[in-house]
Design brief:
The protein is an alpha+beta fold. Among the domains are: 1-37 and 213-347, Multidrug efflux transporter AcrB transmembrane domain (Multidrug efflux transporter AcrB transmembrane fold); 70-170, Multidrug efflux transporter AcrB pore domain (Alpha-Beta Plaits, 2-Layer Sandwich), CATH 3.30.70; 415-518, Alpha-Beta Plaits. It is built from 26 helices and 11 strands. The chain has helices at 2-11, 13-31, 34-37, 51-63, 85-99, 139-153, 156-161, 172-206, 209-212, 214-234, 243-271, 276-303, 311-342, 352-363, 370-380, 382-397, 418-429, 446-460, 490-503, 513-547, 551-576, 581-584, 594-624, 629-656, 664-696, 705-714, and strands at residues 71-76, 104-108, 129-136, 166-170, 405-406, 438-443, 464-466, 470-473, 476-483, 509-512, 592-593. It is elongated and about 90 Å long.
Amino acid sequence: MIAALATLAVGRPRRVLVAAGVAFALAAVFGAPVTGTLGSSIQDFQSPGSQYERANAAISAASGQNAYYNLAALVAVRGDIALDTSAQRTIARLAAMLAAQRGFQRVLDYGGAGIDSRSPALLSRDRRQTVVLAAFAGERDATAAVSHVRAALSKPAAKATFAGASVRFGGAALVNQELNELTTSELARAELFALPILLALSFWFFRGLIAALLPPLVGGLAILLTFLGLRAVDQFTPISVFALNLVSGMGLGLGIDYSLFMVYRYREELARGADASEAIERTLQTVGRTVLFSCLTVAAAMLSLLVFPLRFLYSMGVGGAIVALCDGAVALLVLPALLIVLGPRINALSPAWLQRRAARSATAAGADGGWWRLARGVVRRPGRVALLSAVVLLAAATPALHLRFISPGGNLLPASAQSRQVESALAASFPANVAEATQIVVRGPAPTARRLAAAVARAAGPAASSSNAADLGRDTWEITLLPHGSPFSNAQVDLLARLRALARPYAALAGGATAFFVDQKGAIAANIPLALLILLPLTAAFLFAMTGSLTIPLKALLMNALSVAVGAGLIVWVFQDGHFSSVLGFTPLGGLEESTLVLMLVVAFALATDYEVFVLARVKEAHDAGLPNREAIALGIERTGRIITAAALLFCVAIGALATSQLFFTKQLGLGAALTVAIDASVIRALLVPSLMALMGDWNWWAPAPLRRLHARIALHELAPPSHGVSLVPKTPGPGA
């Protein structure tokens, strides 16, 4: 495969570039519009087969209406709403305006016609605020209704009617609309934020403008191709719009990684006297092989998310896997052809002072270089370095021990979002949020429903207010409980477990806000073992195919687990405990959104494997050429240290740009991945990995005889590296090396 790629790049570079140009144009025309076609829903965070979903379906089937109120209007007045008839008329007018909109199904307002219209839960504790809840057939109907009502409220006649009253809108439909809009707009904003920084850093690391343009080119083409892939997949199974942010960050980050390693090795081969064709062949036989393994391992890690039934997670798995494979394909197909066509012009537009700096840094390579001295220091005292590094990393991971979870909703939006303000006001100022009620649905005759309602009321006790069984039609009854306090508290979670046990003999279903939270956690927890069963063996298999060692994959999995633990600890310390919240611009919620945390940890695992592959490839190359174990480790670190540091910095900018988002979970993903990559590329890859490899000695390359024979048959063997490939003092490379 590698030989075929080299033949294609060297023999037909212009044809390859023409084909790439056509692919770019098609992806731009048909792929880019995916940013406007993908959508999101609160159901993105829920399992389709959960009891929550089945309860909603049962209510909708019996009543012919939406199972829950998807729109909330918070009305604030000057007086006591319970005593002020004028305020009640204002509220009734707002309810009538909502009822006149398309898709309207039902409304619940204080003083209205509903059976619960005098419920204290509809009034704030000071009785100066009330909530008007409305159910619409679809989310688009609800958001369109809000637009029409807002426009009507701005007219002079309505201003007179609503004088002294303020109206703010929220609810599930508006939360989803604002999440969609912010996800799309912040995707472009994050890219605009990151691109100038990436270009400046690329110019510094690549020592020239032409070379610096290659990583954004590789990443951009990969992103567009992924958008095209996502649009195709969306025709068969819905893809969440949230996948776009991950595709953007990972696409740029991996494109930068692969470009940096490819161009660095290409220039290194040119500096040794090879012509462009020989340099490309040698680059593909070494770094190209590593890029192939890297994109496959990253894609395999992301594919482990497909086992989760939550649309949010499997969409991220699809997007992450496609963009990793696209980055690898562009780096292995398009980039070599471009390097052949550019030839010496790869070093064009490089200022003389940068060329002189490159020459000085190249002269300091090998036995006199900083990375060589660091690596030699590590392998001379591996026990001390390993112990100290492990202690520091474990200390950084300890905050993960008090990890708590929150339910997704309006809290994912910035504090300035009106729907989040409504949700916060309902939680802070009202005795209960009617829109977050627990609903128990039972089929059968009226006496059965009444017996269950009485049992539910006794079980709820002071934890919730219970209603009588309401007839939904078709022998289906609904029992509603209003939680006292947060519906996501431990008390409400325990109550839901008791209620479900109580409802089981009646074949009843318990849904609602608490059920959403519990069922989401259950769906994730139930599928984590299967995800690990896919993730760990596949990663180990790819590393074995690359190295022929059994111990190296096991060590790599251990290092990746440590990297993931550190990432989790740092995220808990920042986002749950609230450190640097004012600097980062978010309000701590006292916990983390679980599905986003799972995504961040899988991304961190994939990226840790990515850097592990590049370090191991260079160490193995030196070891296969005959260097002793510790010398090979030191040379591998010296040859990859500067590149991995540069790649990690560039990747942190690309993925870390998501931390500028106003969305809580996007900020959590971007900052978490960037911090994990930074720790992994510095402490773990530069200190802990080489120190452990030095302690392991020849055991690094051990495998039982059957596995050695298997590796001999399946491994993609690279050409034997030339003697100068392991020289401790290489020749002076060209600019940018």
